[in-house]
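Need tokens for this chain, all 347 residues.
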Amino acid sequence: MNNNSKIKLGIIGVGRMGITHYSIINSHPDVEITAVADPSGLILTMLNKYLPVKTFKDYKDLFKRADIDAVLVCTPPSLHYPIAKLALEKQLHCFVEKPFTTKYNEASELARLFAGTTLINQVGYVNRFNDVFVKVKELLDAGLIGKLVRFKSEMFSCTITNEDEGSGWRATRENGGGAVFEMASHAIDLVNFLIGKPDKITGSSLNQIYSKQVEDVASTTMIYKNDISGTLYVNWSDTSYRKPTNKMEIFGLGGRILADQHSLKIFLNEPNAQYNMRQGWNTLYITDLFKPVPFYVRGNEFTRQLYHFVDCIQGKVDKNECSFADGAATLEVIENLFNDYEQNGKI
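Here are the structure tokens for all 347 residues:
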């Protein structure tokens, strides 16, 4: 790719996330979307009518015939592995929606293969780009609340609130359905980002409320060799939440942090001059931490992650904040959770 030319981009899968990513990345002045693949004839007809892109029903045809430098993969998770493998063969930069793959061995293979190249590889865990959680990371790295002891990572939504007969890809774990792949992956990746990957998973529990084949509620305990421990709890059948909500609670010897996507509360045993925080409770809102983005859809973090992908391709940043290796680490925890439940969680 010529450094002075636009990045030619292909998008595979234009469902909800594909459309979201299309609208965001299309706003970038250094990107040109040249090709889209999706099995829906209706969607492709609309794209052909209103947008100057080549369309393909089969993603394999896109790889064969489209002129692209990079690809966004927004298909059901079970397709991520073969598509990413093709991207590697074509020497294309690759952004894959979470949970990256449905199998840890596939995720670790992709991470290893892409690590041996100069290709940019990224997984769509947006919490790593959320203003509040980025601030939490900064405060933890600075030792604001001292030695960490205990944490709690939670996520809630009202995604499944009626009897589900098992139709569609989200209804089977093999295709990437269920509360663990859909939601716990976010909560686990946030733990890996802020605390680090746990050394042991124990006490895992999966519950069905409305779904027939997958879990609606999941919980587990995470244990670390440095004596930190924490709990994970996710529920995508909670009607008390209108929108998906991530929550982190972190307790340290010097205080406590409570955070979600929109606000941050910090209790300190002693005042901190560096961050101008008093003893006791300190509250910061998203408006206090807000860093503007050029184009807004759903949240700043969605734009920031895709613009970061472009910055990485252009060599403007030294470190990718959510590489395939990070995605594989989250899949390892997920696999350990499932294995722990199968071996120890059933009575």
